[in-house]
Write a structure and sequence with these properties.
By secondary structure, the chain is mostly helical. The chain has a domain at 89-284: Hypothetical protein af1432, CATH 1.10.3210. It is built from 10 helices and no strands. The chain has helices at 2-103, 108-125, 129-138, 151-154, 162-179, 185-196, 217-232, 243-253, 260-268, 270-279. The longest helix is centred in the N-terminal third of the chain and has 102 residues, at 2-103. The radius of gyration is 45 Å and the shape is rod-shaped. The structure holds fe (ii) ion (FE2) (2 copies). Residues 142-143, 171, 197-198 line the site of one fe (ii) ion (FE2). One fe (ii) ion (FE2) is lined by residues 110, 142-143, 226, 230.
Length: 285
């Protein structure tokens, strides 16, 4: 009996021993499995999120790229337009200069030579490449005021009398009046050059009798470049001067009519100035 009970008990105990771990293992596996599922779901969700984020970013990258491209395109258009405007200004200035000179029967090459001499003076004087180039653009305009001078005075073969000289000299003031209203840098500088290209270093020039550095450097340079070219060329009223005669006048007028520093530059680099005259001579036209 005892044995039977004992056996029964043992069996029960045995059953419990067998069953319990099974139940325990199943729960654990189920938990692990559910954890695995949850983990897989979370991972999948995360991957989806990352992918969606990538797509959003790619889309916004594309949009940004498109906006950037459009901006670049507009910028290019603006640059082209401003270059066009600048080129037009240069052409207008050069043409007006040529008109001014043609009235006094000077050749188109006169203004081209004055432009080149002026740039060379500007660079040796120490102006920047940009300022020297600006002067090159505006110096051909120095005599634009001559469009308003009557032919009888402008092209008189002999010497001008006092009154005629006054009329002739008014071209500096007239040129300035013609150009002074513009807000454009090029035209503003052209106005200054027209106004001041007959001022003398010693204050004895016209129209305002400015002295020394009161005269804009563009005016001082154009004055010397213009005289150098005018003297070396044949005009209705005179033969071309020899170089020696021009050099003598320049030595004489250093510190009087002309800025002494510019005269020094001229003699230091005289070969280069002569070279410009030769390369743009009137017989090539
Ligand atoms: Fe002049
Ligand atoms: Fe001139």
């Amino acid at each position: 009996m005892n044995d039977i009970i004992t056996n029964n008990e043992r069996r029960k105990n045995d059953d419990r021993r067998i069953e319990e771990p099974v139940i325990y293992d199943n729960k654990l596996i189920a938990e692990i499995e559910s954890l695995q599922i949850a983990f897989a779901e979370t991972t999948e969700k995360l991957i989806k999120d990352v992918k969606r984020q990538d797509k959003i970013m790619a889309r916004s990258d594309k949009r940004q790229q498109k906006e950037y491209d459009e901006l670049q395109k507009k910028l290019k258009e603006v640059n082209e337009l401003s270059k066009e405007i600048e080129d037009t200004q240069k052409e207008v200035i050069f043409t007006m200069g040529a008109i001014g000179e043609s009235r006094s029967r000077e050749t188109g090459n006169h203004v081209k030579r004055v432009a080149e001499y002026s740039k060379l003076f500007a660079l040796y004087y120490g102006l920047s490449e940009e300022d020297a180039e600006l002067l090159k653009q505006v110096s051909p305009m120095h005599d634009i005021g001559k469009v308003a001078i009557p032919d009888s005075v402008l092209n008189k073969p002999g010497r001008l009398n006092f009154d005629e000289r006054l009329i002739m000299n008014s071209h500096a003031q007239i040129g300035y009046e013609m150009l002074k209203h513009s807000n454009r840098k090029l035209l503003k500088m052209a106005a200054t050059v027209a106004y001041e290209h007959h001022e003398n270093w010693d204050g004895k020039g016209y129209p305002r009798g400015l002295k020394g550095e009161e005269i804009h450097i563009y005016g001082r340079i154009t004055a010397l470049a213009d005289v150098f070219d005018a003297l070396g060329s044949e005009r209705v009223y005179k033969k071309a001067w020899s170089n020696e005669k021009i050099f003598e006048l320049f030595r004489e007028e250093k510190g009087k009519q002309f800025d002494p520093k510019l005269i020094d530059i001229f003699f230091e680099h005289v070969d280069e100035f002569i070279e410009i005259r030769v390369s743009l001579n009137d017989f090539l036209e």
